[in-house]
Every structure is written in structure tokens, then in C-alpha cells.
From TrEMBL:
Residues 48-87 have a biased composition (Low complexity). This is SGNH/GDSL hydrolase family protein. Residues 1-24 form the signal peptide. Gene3D superfamilies: SGNH hydrolase.
Amino acid sequence: MRSSSFAPLLAPTLLYLVGACASAAPPEAQPGTPASATHVQGDVAAPPEARTSPAVAAAEAPAPEAAGASMAAPAAAPTGAAGEVPPEAAPPIEPRSIVLHIGDSFLMAGFSQALRPKMKAVGALYEVRSEQASYTTSWHLKLAKLVGDYHPDLVIINLGANEVTLTDPAARADAVERLVKIVGNRPCVWVSPPLWRKDTGIIEIFRKHTSPCRFFDSDAHAGPISRQPDGIHPDAAGGTAWADAFFRWLLAERAPMPREGEALPKGSGRHAVNPWRLRPEKNGASPGPSLQKTAQTQL
């Protein structure tokens, strides 16, 4: 009887103790219940030295527009309005232009040999014709045939080395003008021989009578060059230095894109615009009387 009288009193006590123990145990995670930040956002809980500051993260992250632009290769910046070449810039040399180069023995003394790879590099077909002991008076028929056969875009003439010592250089003016007339309305450069002695006036004849061809003063542009044992012809190094100076000058003297209505020179016909068009002579040298008449006839 006495033990049963204590049962009602012990039951609440036992229930209290069981509830206290249950509240002390950690709760179990339930499905759909957010887990603690320590386990899910591990980058937030990373040690301070491994964190990236907001300023650095903002600088390293590309802006949306920049990131999109970086996906495509940048387009080449136009060189002028609507992608046109600026007025004073020469256009690229299109491949398969024809360059005819004639001359005396100086042409084959390292000059054409050094010039050939340069012409090949710009895609030009380089035709060289040379004759030893030749003069301005001996090339008219040969040049006329070559121009008719090749229809060159550019003609280069290396003559005069055998006429440096003439007692009457003015007598060659007509021969020079005849050669220039055969070239016709196409780009042309007359290259003077690099002098090994003082000339008697032939260089000045070339300067005055080769227009509208351009005149390249080899001594002025190339300076002293090394020679073969004869002391006259350039050696390989001298020919290379001579050709280097000439080619730099030639590229610099190419004309810009033609303006609307501008008369265009003749050439091979392989290009809409002759890639070897040259700027006019800066000193404004006028052609001889026969050339002026020819120019008027062509116009």
C-alpha cells in the first residue's frame, strides 16, 4: 500500500528527467532544412589569408561588355574613313606585278642579285636584261621589244657607266630621251652609276633629260660603296649596299591612292591601279621638248 502511494509522485519526476536529457542532445538535420553556413559556404569560412578582397575581385572580373568583346578577335583598325587608305599612304603592292630592269655590266655587279629577293618578297616578277659595254645609244630597239613583250608595271634603267668619261656628254641627251619615250606612260626610274671617278657631265644629262622617269642619284643615296679589284665595278657587298639604298628609296617614292579623275599610268593590266605608281619629281624638273610633245599627245 505504501509503495503504491509513492507512484503518483515518482511519475512526474521521471518525466522531468527524461525531458531534460532529450533537450541536451543535438538536433538531427531534417530534409529541406537549411544546413549551417559552416558546411555549405566553405569559401566564406576559409582562413583570412585565402580570401580575395572585394576590390581585387572587382578588378579581376571582366565587365560584361569587355568579356563579350574578348571572345572575338579584334578587327583591324581602319586606316581612314570607311577603311580607305589615307591620301598620303601608298597602298600595298599587289602580287604579280612586272618589273623590267635593263642595264650595263654595273647591273650585274651585285645590284640585281641583291634586288631580286626584295622584288620576290613583294610578289613582283623581276625580268633583268644586261649587256656588257653597252651605252644609252645601243638599247632603243632592245628596250622597245622588251616593253612590247612584257608590258611592265615598272621599268628600271641602269645605263651610263660607260659614258662617265665622254668628252661631249650633252650629245647623249637625245638618246636618253628616246629611251624614256619608249618606256611611255608607265612608272620608270633611271639609276645613275655609282661613280668611281669624277664624271664629265653625264650625270647632269641624266638628271635633266630622264623626266618623266624618276632619277635616282646613286652617289647621293648610297654613298661610297666597296668595289671589285678593278676599282670600278661594285663587289657583292657594294652591290648589296647600292640595292638596299635604291629599294628603300623606291618604296618611299611610291604614290598614294589616286584621287578621283586622276590619270593612271600604263602597266601590265593585271591590277586596277599600277602598284608601282611613283610620286612626281620633287624638284619639278621639266622634260625635254620632245617629251613635252609626247606627253601632250598622250593626254
